[in-house]
User: Fold this.
Amino acid sequence: MAASTRLVAIAGLLALLVCTSNGQLSPSFYAKSCPNVEQIVLSGMADAIKKEPRMGASIIRLFFHDCFVQGCDASILLDNAPGLASEKDAVSNKNSARGFEVIDAIKAQVEKACRATVSCADILALSARDSVSLLGGSNWTVLLGRRDSTTANQTEANNLPSPFENLTSLVSKFAAKGLTAQELTVLSGAHTVGFSVCFAFRTRVWGPEPNINISFAMARRQNCPASGGDTNLAPLTTPNTNRFGNQYFKNLMVGRALLHSDQELFKGGAGPTDGMVRRYGKDGGAFARDFAAAMVRMGNIGLKTGNQGEVRLDCRKVN
Assistant:
């Protein structure tokens, strides 16, 4: 069996085990009602990434930020409306969360095939999985059957893990969602692709900041001045290959993390997650397997199923 096939099989088994344990989601949820949904989503994501390779990372981030607020219920996709303050305007999302139009386009195609059947939450979960796979990362079986929320929580979105936090705070926030320090570490590996705005890493490259490679800091300063240029972009992992692998962890071990919160995962041998970073930096296969399993776990946070919530016809507004 080829290595890539083994990864899919292992991830699929993990997904089925989780499904059995929670008894709520199923990989075959749309087998009869919308059998082509996964192909529609994959095609939409392939087109989006072909047009802009950065979009894959943006969709992965969108899924993270959705699941950490009210659970994986597509609340992040809702626009402002009377009585509803959009999570898009939260500090962690405003001017940085993106990809909404990609999900809109995929949803439109899904609605043409199967009206009022597939939730925006499931479309986002599938899109995140396909983004990883299309960028060269692992694949896994996505459990389906989520329902969309009819509310948003901007206050909770303002408390999403930030690029300025220390390890203790990050571990605490992940634990509050039922995720371990190991899952924090491996899920942070999504930063192997994508970009960050200057505002999020200015204090790291201008200092004073421990555990940073000086030449790396000097290079990043070129596009992130001490003041101004807040929206200037830099790759989260260098070299920027737009390929999903374990380079992120290799960078952490030599002080080349762009974000303070990322470098907190590796403190030169003294940190509780240092061993995990070393493992993933040396073993890309272990990273791929564990990342797939952690994405399945994260995708089960705060589920709305059955009669809870709704299946939105438009991901930007409640029915």
About this structure: Strands lie at 195-197, 233-235.
